[in-house]
Structures are given as structure tokens and as C-alpha cells.
Amino acid sequence: MSGQDDTLRAARRRVRRRNSSLLILAAGMLAFGLAAGALYFFLRPTTLQIAVGPAGSEDVKIVQAFAQAFAHDGSAVRLKPVATQGSAESIALFAANKVDLAVARGDLNLPASAESVAILRKNVVVLWAPSGAKGKRSTGSKVKSIDDLAGHKVGVIGSTQANVTLLRVILTESGVNPDKVAVSQFSVKQIAELARDPSLDAYMAVGPLDSKITAEAIAATAAARGEPRFLPIDVSEAIAQKHPLYESEEIAGSIFSSSPARPEDKVETVSVNHLLIAQHALDDATVGALVRQLFTMRLQVARDVPSASKIEKPDTDKDAALPAHQGAAAYIDGNERTFLEKYSDYIWGGILLLSGLGSAIAWLRHYMKRDEREQYIAHRDNLLALISKVRGAETPEALEAMMSEADDLLREALDCYDDGAIEEGDLAVIGLTLEQFHHAVADRRAVLGGDRPGLPRMRAG
């Protein structure tokens, strides 16, 4: 029966060990899965929705080109264009938090949550008046400067109200009552009608200096009503001081045409930035990565969309009219924090947590094995007690029985060690006790008359 009991105990211990191994394997697989999931979460690309329009515009071409470049390069930040009818709809979607980014002019009614990420281009104001075609003196205009615009009519290219508002600011700062200047707006597809309209005494366009629309409008009015007379905005510095959304600029000579020179000399004017804006709540690291990608791939994208080369960094001064997003400012000013700088507190916290968790697991394991450890202590004490009994043994048979009992105690102690209930130091104590036990057996044999043939002799493991 004792042999059967030993076999059953051994089988139960094997089952427990196998279950423990499976549990450790499952815990390892769970930890690996959690680590892989966390790694995927942190390394997966971030996709930002950007409102831009209208369809076919230069803004849409730039955004689409960057979106394709980011996707092809496997960048950390991707762009998903959301088509709109124009800036008004783009800003409406942005204000409703339906998009992360938007493309809009800086002088529009932007929501308080808007912060600049990049300047896509500078839109300059071009004002000119027809000088009159040869042989047709009636086609000319008496307007020679902005001061002469009172009582006359200006044709403004573009259907946005922002252009009219900008014209009124220019007139007011130039000392001209804007209510005495008539305005007629023409879409970008109505350049021919603009040039043929004899009621117009001056023209205004707002766009980049290399704008085909502005160049075509100047050429069309020149063909219909004579060479353009460009009107300088002499108060551009004052406008920039009073209205921070506008800046003072110069139009270089011959920029619209070299033969004939249009204009013949540089012309003072004002400009307004065309911006990429982001939500204030957008993650700083994400915006910083986006700005880095924009300026890293700017020249690459410019091969297909030349206007991409004009992208500039926003003003990072705290008193800027439209503040730069903190993530963009950190990249531009070189103040980006490294991964360790941003997450050092979390890393150390994780290390402390893991250390505490490891200590808790060790204590729990020790607590769960408390019965086996108590059993080991009992075996050790029993083995010590056997040493005393050996010295009082009267027959070799009694010694043999005690040695068999010591074998059982050793086997139980080894099982405790295998189960993790005791450490190597505890096992060393058992070895030392067994050594003393064998010395006692050897001494008692000598007293009883010497070794008996065939009597087993145990050795410490």
C-alpha cells in the first residue's frame, strides 16, 4: 500500500507541475499579447481628417499630393482629405470638431480652437487700373492711386466676402470712405466678363504672386483697356500694425510679365496668409510629426505640385495674431521632447509597479506553498529525530527501517523543492542533516558488531 500511495502522490505532483507549467505558459502568452497590442497601438499610423476645397483648387491638389506622399512613405501621420465647397464649409466642419485640420485664409472668422500648423502660401493684394487702349481714350480710367477710388467702381476677383472686407480695410486706412467705392465681384471663371466691363475703374485680385488667375486677369484687362497702372498701398505698414492678420509686402517688378514689364517697378502692398490650421486639443506629438513630414517632403511633393515649395513655418511668437500649435512650435523652435523625456515618469512608474507586482506574486506563491514548507520543516525535524533514534537502535534491522524512513523524508523534501516551496539553501540543510544521519548509522553499526553484508548505505544527494 505504501508503494501505491507513493505512486499516487508522485502522479498528483506531476499533474500539479504540468498545470503550473501550463499556467506559466498562458501567463507568458498573455503578457506577450498585451505587449504586442500595446506596441501596435503606439506604432500604428495616426490618420487626421483635413477639410479642404473647392474641388480642383490648388489647395486640394497640395493636400492630396501630401496625403499620397505620406501613405507611400509609410509615415506616422496620414492625411484623409474631406472635400468641401470652399473655406466657409471647411471652417464650419472644423468649428463643429468634425475634422482635425482645415485649410483656410487667416483673415476669415476662425474658431477659438484654431491654431496654425503651416503657412501654405501668402496671398498678396494686387490693385490696378486700366490706362486706356490706343485710339480708345474712353476705355481708360482716371484712377491713378487709391486716393482716386472714391466715387468709382472696383471689380474684385473671387466670390469670398473676405476680399471685399480686405478692400474696405485698405480704403479706410488710406483715408478713403469705403462706402463711396462701389464693388462688383467676379468669380475666377469670369475673367473675360471682368475685362469687358466698361463700368469698372479698377481691379483687385488676392492670391499668390505666381497665380495664373491674377496674371490672366491683368493680361485680359490690358488687352481690352490698355496697360495696367498698378496702385501701391502706401499704408501697408500701418495696416499690418493695426490689423495683425495682414502683413506688409512688396510686389517685385516684372513679376507678372517681363515684356512689357508688369509692374515696371516694385509696388507696396499687403498680404494675408493661407493656413493649415489644427484643433488646439490635437496631440502635440502628432502635430509635431505632421510638421516634420510636411517640411521633409515639401520639395519632393513640389515636383508634382510646384506650389508646395512655398510652404512656410508659422509664427511661433506668443503674441502672434493666430498662435502656432504647441506641437508645431516645439518642432520649429527645436524644443521637442524625446520619448524618454515625455514618458520617463510613466516608465519609472511602470518599473515600480512591476517590482511591486513581482514582490506580490512572490509573496502569494510563498503563501500558497505554506503547507508544503511546513511539511518540509516537519521532515527536517523528523530527520533530526531519527539521528537520536539511530543512537538507540538495538538491531541492524531497526537501522535499516530508519534508513528507509530517511529515504521517504528525503523524497518528500525533494518534492517540496521541485514544487518551489523551498529554496536551495533549505535543500542544503537537508543534505547536511542526512550526512549527520549517515555518520550516526555508521557509528551505530560499529557498536552493533560491524557492517552486515547487503545492508544499504545512503549517501547525501
Task: Explain what this protein looks like in three dimensions.
Helix 4 (161-173) links the parallel strand 5 (153-157) and strand 6 (182-186). Helix 8 (284-296) crosses helix 10 (326-332), helix 12 (370-391) runs antiparallel to helix 13 (396-418) and helix 13 (396-418) runs antiparallel to helix 14. The longest helix has 42 residues, at 2-43. This protein is rod-shaped. The chain has helices spanning 2-43, 58-73, 87-95, 161-173, 191-196, 212-225, 236-242, 284-296, 298-302, 326-332, 339-368, 370-391, 396-418, 424-448, and strands at 46-52, 77-83, 101-105, 114-130, 153-157, 182-186, 202-207, 228-230, 246-251, 257-258, 261-262, 267-279. Strands 1, 2, 3, 4, 5, 6, 7, 8, 9 and 12 form a ten-stranded mixed sheet that branches. A two-stranded antiparallel ribbon has the order 10-11. It is of the alpha/beta class. It has 14 helices and twelve strands.
Would you spell out the secondary-structure blueprint of this structure?
Elements: H1 2-43, E1 46-52, H2 58-73, E2 77-83, H3 87-95, E3 101-105, E4 114-130, E5 153-157, H4 161-173, E6 182-186, H5 191-196, E7 202-207, H6 212-225, E8 228-230, H7 236-242, E9 246-251, E10 257-258, E11 261-262, E12 267-279, H8 284-296, H9 298-302, H10 326-332, H11 339-368, H12 370-391, H13 396-418, H14 424-448
Parallel strand pairs: 1-2, 1-3, 5-6, 5-7
Antiparallel strand pairs: 3-12, 4-7, 4-8, 4-12, 9-12, 10-11
